[in-house]
Design a protein that fits this description.
The complex is a heterotrimer. By secondary structure, chain A is α+β, with helices and mostly antiparallel strands. Chain A is built from eight helices and 20 strands. In chain A, 23% of the residues lie in helices and 35% in strands. In chain A, the strands form four sheets. In chain A, strands 6-7-8-3-9-10 form a six-stranded mixed beta sheet, with helices on both faces. A five-stranded mixed barrel of chain A has the order 11-12-13-20-14. Chain A has a five-stranded antiparallel beta sheet with strand order 15-19-16-17-18, with no helix packed on it. The radius of gyration of chain C is 23 Å and the shape is globular. The chains are: A alpha+beta, B mainly alpha, C mainly alpha. Chains in contact: A-B, B-C. Chains B and C meet through helix 1, helix 3, helix 4, helix 5 and helix 6 of B and helix 1, helix 3, helix 4, helix 5 and helix 6 of C.
Chain lengths: 373, 300, 271
């Protein structure tokens, strides 16, 4: 697995992107992005709409020109290469199955262009369709298939050409929740079986974490953080990632001390020492980050190093848990506690941040990112 | 209002609105178009006796049409010209429609309108303009002589099949452009990208994806131009010279100097029948072809 | 290779448009030319031919007749086109295909056949030919254009706006008047202008259905056919100019209302 692939020097990586940039006139969609893809893995670019993730995919696929920077596959630069020559295949968001061709002809399309003989094409198509249980539909037309079926045909049509890299542009967006979960499992399984590299694009954080070995989080054209899902979840580097991934309480402040793995921040809750993210430096703006499930209420809060009184504004019952939204001198704090916890709206309670689950991350949340507060 | 009554009332309103819209417009066409055509049909079974019309049913007119090699040839000529001009306009219009649909961003509407403006000038003016250009003393000939390229006027420019073909193409090119443009414009770029992604060269993308997916527009355009050309009476008569005799000019004569309304009606309906057969046959053949089947199943 | 293809496309487009407008522009050129024949070399610049046209009372009378017919035709076809478009785009019913065929049929019937059918019809019905018969006959063949234009605009209008109006309490008629109609306005105006232009240019059907009073196209038809006087150039150019002005006017109007609406919307949404 790509341990620090991004840090490595490019040896062994399938695809290397350096300083990848895309401008549309005045709009800077992608701002000098660096990343690498391994030769067998599931990598996802995750980010909100407009962050540039689809643009990067299209630049690799060859459908958008590269303004600056470069992308190489197996050492060969893709700059200026037409899409039909790239060792890359794409699964489009709208599937783009040719409506005038049967499922079989759709899947065989790429093979036939390279003049394989008929028997071989037939065999390969049938086998490929079998891997996604679509053999029975071979003679149907795309308009006769359901969304999930079309999705599978689009997949097969792409990977049957044995590309070095498979690009997937939010392929599950049009499916309902149940179908999406099912297809996520299928996709992950398929990637393992095929041994190809999948580059996946989505705005759904849960989906990205369920599928990927490596996640690249993007915002406004820049990479905010990249790494294995667990690392990103437990150790976000900055406020945006902490908020985008799983949601967190972020208290703005200034760094007063920083060392290798720990830092101290001066914030409305006082001077707090905690684990420090990479790159946190003295004098910088930073945020104290605590996930909702690590905020304690009532007697449990007594043992917390950071304790305060807060007024409860909402209690939302969510089955097994309760989400408690409170305010401390105007600062919103969200806690998630068990369904049995005795908290009522309007009460003033003692809350605390559990020891060992505090983290100091770079930056503060921009007002635009801070929608729900 | 209770739920059921409200629903019925909305239903009733919709039905009323529908009837108010459909019935007058439908009736208008029936009375002003179908009825006269039906009358024309009945007249085709009459006979003429110098200046009076004998309203006794007879098949003599249709027999005359079918048996006469002249009339048969004229109907065939109408269809041939129709098909030929349709093909010619398709070849000229396709690159242009492609250009407007896929290469133009800001001036699309302007270009389309500009294509239609010559249409609005009217049949006579268009024909007149071409006579000015093609005539023996016309612009083209005098220019060629003045530039020293020829020493004699080229008579065959006007009052010839050449002139007929040129002016017919000129007349109906806008229709083909619009029909092709509509289907090219509606072509989802994702299909082109998908084809390229799968390894198709530009030529292959065109032949395997663009052409099939725009074929309904092409077929519609071809049939439209075929029908319009086959029925064009003015152009061949005014610029075709002696080669400009058509089935429609024969109809015109029967209702003019030659005074044989029943025969004229039979000629008219023979042409209509021929056109209807060709159109129905073409649509059927297309729907059954591989391209047609996949696209029509899509329902759009 | 790729660049060459792009160049070819552009050149082809230029050539086609050039050839489309060449006859008209040449006509225009010679309408200002003093020579009696439409030939090179060119003579002197002159407005004499135009003066001749404006001085011809027969032509001016014909023009008046043309407008007398074109205005009712415009009104009729626009109304019919609006009704038909609404039926096609906003309602579902059986035999819709039959209805569509019925509506476009007049476009495909060869004009001469349609015209002689009218002649028989009028003769059987004992109705005298006149401007009324021209008006009705023209309306039949021009209505399909209006229908297609208005229907294509209506097709793109969002149906949910009408549903929202109904949800807010509007009756069917109010919804139509306050929501649907404004949405169709562009199409209706465009259809009206085109109907007017087509009516004033129409010849074949008008020839067969007009009586003693004839619109301009019929009046000068024999002139156009046999007489190649340059004053006809001038007349033809005036007609073309008129058509172009009308079309340009309708485009300008359409764009002005679109821009006005856009700025209204912007003004409303400013904080």
């Amino acid at each position: 697995m790509p341990q620090g692939v991004a840090a490595a020097n490019g040896a062994g990586a399938l695809l290397v992107a350096r300083g990848l940039t895309k401008h549309y006139g005045d709009v800077q969609a992608v701002r000098g992005v660096d990343f690498e893809l391994p030769s067998n893995g599931f990598v996802t670019i995750l980010g909100p709409s407009g962050c540039g993730k689809t643009t990067i995919l299209r630049m690799i696929g060859g459908f958008e020109s590269i303004t600056a920077g470069d992308v190489t596959i197996d050492g060969r630069s893709l700059a200026g290469m037409l899409p039909n020559r790239r060792p890359v295949n794409t699964v489009f968001q709208s599937y783009a199955l040719f409506p005038h061709l049967t499922v079989f002809d759709n899947v065989a399309f790429g093979l036939r262009l390279r003049r394989h003989d008929r028997a071989e094409v037939r065999e390969r198509v049938v086998n490929a369709l079998a891997t996604v249980q679509m053999t029975a539909m071979a003679m149907r037309y795309p308009s006769q298939l359901s969304g999930g079926q079309q999705q599978r045909v689009a997949l097969v049509r792409a990977f049957i050409n044995e590309p070095r890299l498979l690009l997937l542009d939010e392929p599950l967006g049009a499916l309902d929740l149940k179908m999406r979960r099912h297809m996520q499992v299928e996709l992950k399984d398929l990637q393992r079986r095929l041994g190809l590299t999948f580059l996946y694009v989505t705005h759904d954080q849960e989906e990205a974490f369920a599928l990927s070995d490596w996640v690249i989080v993007m915002n406004a054209g820049r990479i905010e953080q990249q790494g294995p899902p667990a690392a990103i979840y437990h150790a976000p580097d900055n406020a945006f990632v902490a908020d985008f991934i799983g949601g967190a309480n972020l208290v703005a402040g200034t760094v007063v001390a920083a060392s290798a793995e720990r830092a101290t921040i001066d914030c409305p809750f006082g001077t707090v020492a905690a684990a420090g993210a990479e790159g946190v430096a003295v004098g910088q703006e930073a945020s104290l980050c605590v996930r909702a499930e690590h905020v304690r209420i009532g007697p449990e809060a007594a043992a917390c190093p950071v304790r305060f009184a807060a007024r409860v504004r909402h209690v939302v019952f969510q089955g097994n848990t309760k989400t408690v939204e409170a305010r401390v001198e105007g600062l919103p704090i969200v806690a998630r506690v068990g369904h049995g916890a005795p908290v009522e709206t309007g009460e003033t309670v003692t809350m605390g941040f559990a020891d060992g689950h505090l983290r100091i991350v770079r930056g503060v949340l921009a007002p635009a990112d801070d929608e729900a507060r | 209002m209770s739920g059921a009554r409200a629903r019925r009332s909305i239903e009733a309103q919709r039905t009323l609105a529908r009837r108010v819209l459909v019935l007058p417009t439908g009736l208008f066409v029936v009375v002003t178009c179908l009825l006269p055509l039906a009358l024309l049909f009945t007249y085709s079974f009459y006979r003429v006796d110098f200046v009076t019309i004998i309203k006794e049913p007879t098949l003599a007119n249709y027999w005359a049409v079918v048996a006469s090699p002249t009339y048969r040839k004229l109907i065939a000529k109408a269809l041939l010209y129709g098909g030929g001009i349709a093909a010619l306009t398709a070849v000229i219009a396709y690159p242009l429609a492609f250009f407007i649909a896929k290469r133009v961003r800001v001036y699309k509407a302007a270009l389309l309108t500009a294509m239609l403006v010559p249409l609005y000038t009217g049949d006579l003016i268009r024909i007149f303009a071409w006579r000015v250009v093609l005539g023996a003393e016309g612009v083209l000939n005098s220019f060629l002589q003045w530039a020293g390229i020829t020493s004699q006027p080229i008579w065959a420019l006007l009052f010839s099949p050449f002139a007929t073909i040129v002016v017919l193409t000129y007349n109906y090119l806008p229709f083909m452009v619009i029909a092709l443009w509509a289907s090219l414009e509606a072509l989802d770029q994702a299909y082109v990208e998908a084809a390229m992604d799968l390894g198709a060269s530009r030529t292959q993308v065109f032949l395997k994806v663009v052409l099939p997916l725009t074929s309904p527009g092409l077929v519609a355009g071809l049939l439209m131009v075929l029908v319009l050309v086959a029925g064009d009476y003015l152009t061949p008569q005014l610029v075709g010279g002696s080669s400009g005799v058509t089935i429609t000019s024969a109809v015109h004569d029967m209702f003019g100097a030659a005074f044989d309304w029943p025969l004229g009606s039979a000629l008219a309906w023979s042409l209509l029948a021929a056109l209807a057969t060709v159109v129905a046959g073409a649509v059927y053949a297309f729907a059954r072809s591989p391209w047609g089947r996949g696209l029509i199943l899509r329902g759009g | 290779m790729r660049g060459l293809l792009e160049r070819l496309l552009q050149v082809h487009a230029g050539l086609v448009y050039g050839l489309m407008y060449a006859p008209i522009l040449l006509m225009g050129l010679f309408s200002f030319n003093s020579a009696k024949f439409m030939a090179f070399p060119l003579g002197a610049f002159t407005l004499a031919w135009y003066r001749e046209v404006f001085g011809d009372s027969r032509i001016l009378g014909g023009l008046a007749t043309t407008f007398t017919v074109a205005i009712p035709v415009t009104l009729t076809t626009t109304v019919l086109g609006t009704m038909a478009a609404l039926a096609l785009v906003r309602h579902a019913f059986r035999f819709k295909l039959v209805y569509v065929v019925l509506l476009v049929l007049p476009f495909f019937i060869p004009k001469i056949i349609f015209a002689v059918a009218q002649v028989i019809f009028l003769s059987e019905a004992g109705v005298a030919k006149g401007l009324v018969t021209v008006w009705i006959a023209q309306s039949v063949i021009i209505a399909p254009f209006a229908t297609v234009i208005i229907a294509s605009v209506l097709f793109r209008a969002d149906r949910r706006l009408e549903e929202a109006a109904a949800d807010l309490g509007a009756t069917a008629w109010q919804t139509f008047r306050l929501v649907t109609l404004p949405l169709m306005k562009n199409g209706i105006v465009a259809a009206a202008f085109i109907a007017f232009v087509l009516s004033s240019a129409e010849y074949t059907v008008s020839f067969f259905t007009s009586g003693r009073v004839q619109p301009l196209s019929v009046l000068v038809a024999s002139d156009f056919r046999f007489n190649l006087s340059p004053s006809l150039n001038a007349l033809a150019m005036l007609i073309v100019l008129f058509n172009v002005v009308v079309i340009v006017l309708s485009e300008v109007l359409r764009r002005r209302t679109a821009r006005r609406r856009a700025s209204q919307l912007a003004a409303m949404t400013m904080p």
